[in-house]
Amino acid sequence: MTSSVPSHLSVPCSDLPWRLLRLPPLSDPAGSLTREDALLARVMAGESGPLAVISRHPRCLVATRREARWPDFAAVGARLAAEGWPVVVRCSGGSCVPQGPGVLNLALIFARPAHWRLEDGYRLLCDLLTAWLDGFGVHAGVGEVAGAFCDGRYNVQVGGCKLAGTAQRWAGSNRRRSVVLAHACLLVDPDLEEMTRQVNRFYALCGQQRRFDPEACTSLRRCLRWPAAAAGDFMAEAESRLVEVLAERFAVDGLRRQG
């Protein structure tokens, strides 16, 4: 089922201005992913204001803690790593997600406002991403996509195919500073056949029955029918337009750009 997302949802406010971080790529998958944890810890400690973080990760499969408890997980991870697809573990829920060339990641890290609901974080992400796609002339909706890896209610989809997935993590408690990390994985120009094949292989080697269809996902490049899709550095173009959306939406809160 597909639904639309209301435009211009309220951006969480803070005494400190929002900052935009564009993190350089790392070759180590685990180190690349744990950078978000370090930034979350800084926001929780009050050492940083709210952050919008754009990053790219090296080729890997990102499994959940639940999946990491499977009996064959360690052996399967070692086997896939030897074949060029290391498996790392994330804290958020869902299921295994591929990362690598052609995938762009957006994380919003901020102190949780009073009365903030889990749904609010997802709606904020989806609002930003549908605005980003609007800039390319691509109309998107939100909803589940049967057959897509890491399917969920808050997929951003185009033509019934998943183009971005979302996840969310809350850290802290009522007695401490509570922080939200809302994350989106954007399929800009990846090899969807290969990525889906590796996710399916991970589940098969772990003795699980789950299988996914590469045709259930799409990419931004596939959706475009005009010259922008032929840009020399399409990933850079996609990232630049995402920065523009973030700068516009967070400008009232003083978003700053940082390379």
From TrEMBL:
Superkingdom of the organism of origin: Bacteria
Keywords annotated in UniProt: Ligase
InterPro entries in UniProt: aa-tRNA-synth_II/BPL/LPL, BPL_LPL_catalytic, Octanoyltrans_LipM/LipL
One Pfam family this sequence matches: LplA-B_cat
Keyword Ligase in record: yes
GO MF term list: ligase activity
Domain BPL/LPL catalytic: 46-254
PANTHER family the record matches: OCTANOYL-[GCVH]:PROTEIN N-OCTANOYLTRANSFERASE (PTHR43679:SF2), OCTANOYLTRANSFERASE LIPM-RELATED (PTHR43679)
Protein name: Lipoate-protein ligase A
